[in-house]
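#lab-general

N.A. 3:47 PM
ok so I finally got the sequence cleaned up, no stray characters, all 459 residues accounted for. can someone with queue access submit it? mine expired

B.Y. 3:52 PM
send it over

N.A. 3:53 PM
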Amino acid sequence: MSKKLRVWLLLLIFFNGFISLSLELVVLRQLSFWVGSSPVITSIIMGAFLGFMSLGYWLGNSPRVRVSKIPNILCISFLVIATLALFAASFPFVTTYFALMYAYGITSSVAQTFIYSFVFLSVGPFLFGFNTTLLSRLLQTRNKNNTGNIMAVDTIGSVLASMTTTLLLMPILGVNYTVGLVIVLGLVCALASSRRLWVWIVSLFLLIFGLYINSDYVQFSKYGILVNNANSTISVAEFGDVRVLDMNRLAMSMYDSRQQLGADYINYINDNFIYNLPSDTPRKILVLGAGGFTAGLNDEFHEYTFVDIEPTLKDVSEKHFLKKSLTPNKKFIVQDASQFLKNTPDLYDIILLDVYSNSFQVPEGLITTEFMSRIKSRVAPNGVVLMNMIVYPSFDDAYSRVIDNTFHSVFRHNTSRQVIGNMNPWKDSDVANVIYVFINRANDGRVYTINRTPVIYDR
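B.Y. 4:20 PM
back already:
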């Protein structure tokens, strides 16, 4: 085997590993827009990916596949992979898939993910494993000692994909152009395996169509998407004077430019906790989960710190949502909320926790007693903690009940709970914004009993 041929085969193995893991990460990101990113969803996708890939490894050793036919098989395989990447990971097609799921009454995120995995994550991963075995057979026709090289090169491709896709490609290029890059790499591998005219024609068609469907023009003109990176898919919809900021398919913030109002729960917080703060000295307000920066929107006196993991939020809000710059008393920090609380030495007069979009896209590390204990440690004496939750106000499900238990296990005293909107405990209700409140004042935990009731002194 010539050195040139050996290098060519190792490069194909490298790109096969790179494309496979990069596609898996992009799929996880695209599906999180619809079904969240819980361990259950991730395990279904990874299980399907690895299962079908293992089947490809197994069948790639079939004696029916003659070595002389392998280059042509590889060419077709990479063309199919590029096509599947186009349909499995491009936002317009993923959106169409979930629209069909809801149209046919399939609303369970687990069921949607299972079906998606077997429709879109069967052939592609199978071919990744199949390709690796075929390339290994070509390398070992002349030299049986290439097993270590093959495994190393394939693993290096996967490692680089895991690092560059999440740390560079999706944050910098965007998810849509990362999908385009995966398609391009698949086509390059197909052309490296065969340069027949029909391969060039098919590749050119897939290239043009793939880059168009994943272009910023289509993302914005058809879906209003302003940002589509590793963390978030963000869009702003306008309805007259009212603008709605959507993140990952959910309405995260609302702003009425004529009345200078936000969503109902934000208006409640502003009116009852922020706008009536004493004005003798600036108070410190921490907002975990910046949204559209509508908390304290009209307050230019007190000191605000907004914390969020999405770096584009301030720019999107100022240009497209609020359409005005934040006032100088408001600063924005891009950081994980838990890490910020761990590292900050400051105490805050108000801490607003507003990171819970709904019950299926919950940052699971932020609903624990450990996280809430960090919040409690950062609230100043006489300060207030406000936690906005999307739950059933009538405790209709286990999630709503356990959230309530978790909050009160940390904030045992001086708490209240405000349902924003109507509540009917006598029939099945829908989810609503529920504001949990804790006021950090001394409380000795005493209770009144039939034996001891000093209520006249306490009053």
